[in-house]
Specification:
Elements lengths: L5 E5 L2 E5 L4 E3 L6 E2 L10 E6 L2 E6 L4 E3 L2 E2 L3 E2 L6 E3 L2
Parallel strand pairs: 3-4
Antiparallel strand pairs: 1-2, 3-5, 5-6, 6-9, 7-8, 7-10
């Protein structure tokens, strides 16, 4: 069975992450982003209840102007990390 993946695009660069991978400033993050507003492990990609989700670990995750405790990942979303 293939591993579920989500695709993130930042400044024209695509990254695919699976459950358990992090987004943050750390060079060991699945998606490493050099931005002082982000923590080393800012958010986690998770598979819960058959849905791919983005969970904040040590920072803010928002859709539009609303900070959320989790984001169900769907195609075409614009997700904001940090303040």
């Amino acid at each position: 069975m293939s591993r579920p993946l989500v695709r993130f695009e930042i400044d024209g660069h695509l990254s695919e992450l699976g459950p358990g991978e992090t987004i943050g400033r750390s060079s060991s993050a699945g998606l490493s982003i050099d931005d002082g507003h982000l923590s080393e492990a800012h958010a986690l990609v998770s598979l819960r209840g058959g849905l791919m989700k983005l969970l904040p670990l040590r920072g803010l995750v928002s859709l539009g102007t609303e900070s959320l405790s989790e984001v169900v990942l769907e195609p075409g979303q614009t997700i904001h990390l940090g303040p």
